[in-house]
Amino acid sequence: MEIHKYEKAWLVGALVLIVFFIATVTYVSAITGVSMVDDSGGTIDPDNVTDDDRFSDPRVEQVGEGEYEAYVVAQQFIFRPGTNRPIEVPEDSTVTFYVTSLDVTHGFQIVGTNVNTMVIPGQVSELTVEFDEPGEHGIICNEYCGSGHQDMAGNIVVHSEEDWQEMQGG
Ligand code: CUA
Prior knowledge:
With 170 residues, the chain is an alpha+beta fold. The chain contains two helices and ten strands. The strands form two sheets. Strands 1, 2, 3, 5 and 8 form a five-stranded mixed beta sheet that branches. It has a five-stranded mixed beta sheet with strand order 4-10-9-6-7. The longest helix is centred in the first third of the chain and has 28 residues. The chain starts with a helix and ends with a helix. The protein binds dinuclear copper ion. Dinuclear copper ion (CUA) binds next to strand 6.
């Protein structure tokens, strides 16, 4: 069978477009941090989340100059930390969040940032945010997760350098 010259050109053109679209989506999601299903932090046994030392004691940890890691467990209907006590960091900090779920799929959106991901049992979502200004950011669950879904929320407090020093007792 002979493929017509123009038909061939269209086929090639269509393929180029498809590759271009995929590349665009990949690129945009890479630079904006938007992702659909996020297992960037690896996988985890959903039945034994608390056996993992990152999540046995969910917390915020300083890992470098102005660098923090936050280990957050989402469960019906709280974020730990986040809901009962806020996640606290100083201004001008870079915070990498590792979020996983104890039960069902939740959402993890930090208002005023580009962090917005699904939290799926068995997976760890990894997201990095820079907090340049003191202030507060709400955390909301944007995936329906049961009867308490609409009340599932938390808070991040970004302290001024001065307040932070005071809190550390310096
Ligand atoms: Cu958790 Cu909705």
